[in-house]
Specification:
- This protein has one domain: 2-Layer Sandwich (Translation Initiation Factor Eif1), CATH 3.30.780.10.
- Helices cover 23% and strands 23% of the residues.
- It has two helices and five strands, in the order ββαββαβ.
- The chain has a five-stranded mixed sheet, with helices on one face.
- Strand 1 and strand 2 form a beta hairpin.
Length: 111
């Protein structure tokens, strides 16, 4: 995917390199360096409980992969976006076990 040109149409300079103003996407930290928090959340969810995993640092594709793993292990639905994984239901213990087994640094947070 090419970056948007923002006014540059053509350059006669053979050494021209277009520099984008967009920041580079953060590299995903290895599981041992991740510092994840697992907590129960009910706020603004119509009274329904969800298990919330926050603190993920990395690319969106890797977050989606982690979210899919957790949802599959728990056998429920959920979503993964904005650095957080939401698993439907109260699965704090199971999610924490799966994360630790996969080599992530994770701990239960109050909530």
């Amino acid at each position: 995917m090419k970056p948007p040109r923002q006014g540059v149409v053509y350059s006669t300079n053979p050494d021209f390199s277009y520099a984008s103003d967009e920041p580079a996407e953060a590299a995903t930290l290895p599981p041992a360096k991740q510092n994840l928090r697992v907590q129960l959340d009910k706020k603004q969810r119509g009274g329904k409980q969800v298990t919330l995993v926050t603190g993920f640092v990395g690319r969106d594709e890797d977050l989606q992969t982690l979210g899919k793993l957790l949802k599959t292990k728990c056998g429920v639905g959920g979503s993964a976006k904005a650095g957080a994984v939401v698993v439907q239901g109260d699965f704090r213990v199971k999610v924490l076990e799966v994360l630790l087994k996969e080599g992530y640094r994770a701990k239960a947070a109050g909530g």
